[in-house]
Structure formats: C-alpha cells, structure tokens
Amino acid sequence: MKNKIFKLGCFLAILLSGQAYSASSGTMQCYVDTIAYDYYTDNSCDNSGTPRTTTASFRLTNTTNTTSSVAWTGPSASDCSTTTCNVPIRQYKAITVCADKIYYTDFTWVDVNICASAYYESIN
Question: Would you say 82 and 95 are in contact if contact means Cβ atoms under 8 Å apart?
C-alpha cells in the first residue's frame, strides 16, 4: 500500500512540476516597426506610418527561468521563435499575440496567458 501511495505521489509531483514557476512567468512587450527608432513597451504598442503594412514585433521577457520554447497564439504564430514573434500588421488594424505555455531548459513548463496588443494607423 505504501508503495502505491509513493508511486502516486511521484507521479503527481512530475505532473505538476511545470507549475513551479507560476508566480510571475514573464512580461509580453511589443513595438510596431516604422522608420523611426522603435522601442519595446509592456502589454501594448501603437505607431503610425505611410506603408500599408509593417511588422509588429512581440517578445517575452522577465521569465523566471531560461526559456527553451514558447507556445504562441495569434496571427502568424507559427512563424515565431523562442522568445520573439514578428507579425505583419496592416493600417487601422489591431492584433494580439499571446504566450500560452512556456517551456524551460530544465524540462519544466508553466501554463500562462501573457498577451500584448499592437495597433497601426496611417499618417496620410
């Protein structure tokens, strides 16, 4: 009986190990790329320009451990890298990109819902 309880305890510890970093898993930042010097801001970003389309750049920062990969959601999420995501954005459109799960290099993970929104408008 003790052996079964021990095995069950080990199984639950392994299953829940990814939740160890849930207190503060990171910050999503973004900027909308223009010909000006652009800088990342927390949670949301906006800019204006003359091209009909440009790129919104998102990044995940301040993670609690070294990040191995991120499960991204949003437009063009399949084109994202480890901690950055560059997404095309059209004038007068808003897009939101989220990190849903963070996988760390120590083989732990955490479910998160860290998002940022970008908006782009015309100066014409």
Answer: no
